[in-house]
Design a protein that fits this description.
Radius of gyration: 24 Å
Number of strands: 24
Shape: globular
Helix content: 25-40%
Largest sheet: 5 strands, mixed
Structural class: alpha+beta
Length: about 400
C-alpha cells in the first residue's frame, strides 16, 4: 500500500454551490436534467430542467442559475439538514441546499463519497449559522483528510461498492415484489370492484392504538443491550414504507398494546414536512428477532372486521394517504388525531375475497422480509469495514 497524504478538500475537488434556473416554469421543468433538493435523496420528486443557456451553466462559470454537475460528483447537504452525502449517478443540478464536490483527476469519486459518508460528524461540527447551521463552500474546502494513492482509493471503493451493489439488487427485488402485491390488489379490488360491496365507516373496520410518549433520556442507540426496540417516525419512509436502521431502544414503561410484530401496520400521525410526506401514510413492520414498541408519532392500525394483508394494501393506495393527511392540523408541525378518521366511509369487499388476497400475497411479504434482513446484514458489514478501510493504517 502507498503512503497516505493529508489534503484539504479544496485541493482534491472543486466545491460547487447549487442554484435555481432563472426562467419560466414552463421551460424550467420540461427538460432532461434532474434538479434535486436534499429531500430528493429519499425520494426523487421528478423535477427536470432544460440544458438551455438561461437554465444551466457549465461547471466553473459564474451564473445565478443551476450548475450542471458531472456523473461522479459527491453531493453534501449543506443546510436543513447538514451532512447527508450522495454520489451522483448521472449529470444533474442541485438547489442551494447542497455543496457539491467534483473530484480532480487522480482522485476516485466513490472513495471521496465513502470518506465523507464515514465522516459526516466532521461536516456537522463545522456548520455555522444563527438561524440554522449551514456549511459554506469555503469551510468545506478547508477540511482536511488523508488520501491514499489512486489505486488504493479505487480498491477501497470497490470493496465497499460491492456491498452497496448487493443492497441495490435486493432493493430492486423488493420493489418488484411490492409492485406485484399492488397489481394484484388493483386487479381484484379496483379493476374488478363490485358496486354492491358495502361502504363502512373506518371506525367499524379498524382500531387505532396510539404510541408511547418519550423523552430523550429514555432513549438509547440500537447497539445498547438495555430496554426494548423502539420504532419511531424516522422509520417511516416518505409517502409510506418502512425504513430499517432508524430504530432506538426505549428504557421507560409501556403498555402491552403498544407492542408490534411482523406484519403490523403503523401510520404517521406527526409530520414536520410542508408536503406532509409522513402523516397519514403507512408502513408494514418487518420481521425482528425481538419485540418492539412504537412512538407517539405513530399509530398502530389493527383490523377489526377486515383482513390485515388487505388492510395494508388498501391503506397504501396513494389516495388514502392524501385523504388522511388532509385531516391533520398544524402550521409548522402537522398532527393527525386518528379519531377524526372514524366516520370516513370506505368500500369493503367480502371477507372471503380479502382472505384469498391475503393468502396470495403472504409469500411476497415473506420474501420482502428476507431481502430486507439481508440488506440490514450487508449494511452492518459495510459499516464495520468503513472505519478500517478509511484509516491510513488499514
Amino acid at each position: 500500500m502507498g503512503t497516505w497524504k493529508t489534503y484539504k478538500l479544496g485541493d482534491v475537488a472543486d466545491v460547487v454551490g447549487g442554484g435555481t434556473p432563472k426562467t419560466s416554469k414552463a421551460i424550467y421543468w420540461d427538460g432532461d436534467v434532474p434538479w434535486i433538493t436534499p429531500k430528493d435523496l429519499s425520494k426523487f420528486s421528478g423535477r427536470w430542467i432544460t440544458r438551455g443557456e438561461r437554465n444551466i451553466s457549465a461547471l466553473g462559470l459564474a451564473n445565478s442559475g443551476a450548475v450542471l454537475l458531472p456523473k461522479g460528483t459527491v453531493l453534501v447537504s449543506s443546510r436543513a439538514p447538514v451532512g447527508y452525502v450522495a454520489l451522483a449517478g448521472c449529470e444533474l443540478c442541485t438547489n442551494q441546499g447542497f455543496k457539491s464536490l467534483v473530484p480532480h483527476e487522480g482522485y476516485c469519486p466513490a472513495f471521496l463519497y465513502y470518506l465523507l459518508k464515514y465522516n459526516t460528524a466532521s461536516l456537522k461540527c463545522v456548520a455555522r449559522g444563527s438561524t440554522f447551521p449551514e456549511l459554506s463552500a469555503l469551510v468545506i474546502s478547508e477540511i482536511e483528510f488523508a488520501f491514499p494513492p489512486l489505486e488504493e482509493q479505487e480498491r477501497i471503493a470497490g470493496i465497499l461498492g460491492a456491498y452497496d451493489d448487493l443492497i441495490k439488487i435486493n432493493e430492486r427485488r423488493i420493489a418488484l415484489l411490492e409492485e406485484a402485491a399492488h397489481r394484484l390488489y388493483r386487479d381484484r379490488f379496483v379493476t374488478h370492484a363490485d358496486p354492491t360491496w358495502e361502504r363502512k365507516p373506518i371506525g367499524e373496520v379498524v382500531k387505532f392504538v396510539r404510541g408511547r410518549s418519550y423523552t430523550s433520556t429514555e432513549l438509547e442507540e440500537p447497539t445498547s443491550d438495555k430496554g426494548i426496540l423502539f420504532i419511531n417516525l424516522k422509520n417511516l419512509r416518505p409517502f409510506g414504507g418502512y425504513q430499517r436502521g432508524e430504530e432506538k431502544r426505549f428504557l421507560g414503561k409501556w403498555r402491552e398494546d403498544q407492542c408490534v410484530g411482523q406484519g403490523d401496520i403503523l401510520m404517521g400521525v406527526t409530520d414536520m414536512t410542508p408536503e406532509r410526506r409522513l402523516v397519514g401514510h403507512v408502513a408494514r413492520v418487518p420481521r425482528f428477532k425481538e419485540r418492539a414498541i412504537f412512538s407517539m408519532d405513530l399509530a398502530k392500525i389493527e383490523p377489526v372486521t377486515c383482513e390485515r394483508e388487505f388492510l395494508f394494501e388498501f391503506l397504501s393506495q396513494p389516495q388514502y394517504g392524501k385523504l388522511f393527511s388532509a385531516f391533520a392540523n398544524g402550521a409548522t408541525v402537522s398532527h393527525l388525531r386518528p379519531d377524526t378518521l372514524l366516520d370516513e366511509p370506505v368500500l369493503m369487499p367480502p371477507l372471503g375475497a380479502q382472505r384469498d388476497y391475503g393468502r396470495a400475497v403472504q409469500p411476497l411479504y415473506k420474501a420482502m422480509d428476507v431481502l430486507a434482513e439481508q440488506n440490514a446484514l450487508l449494511r452492518a458489514g459495510r459499516d464495520k469495514l468503513l472505519p478500517r478501510l478509511l484509516r491510513e493504517e488499514a
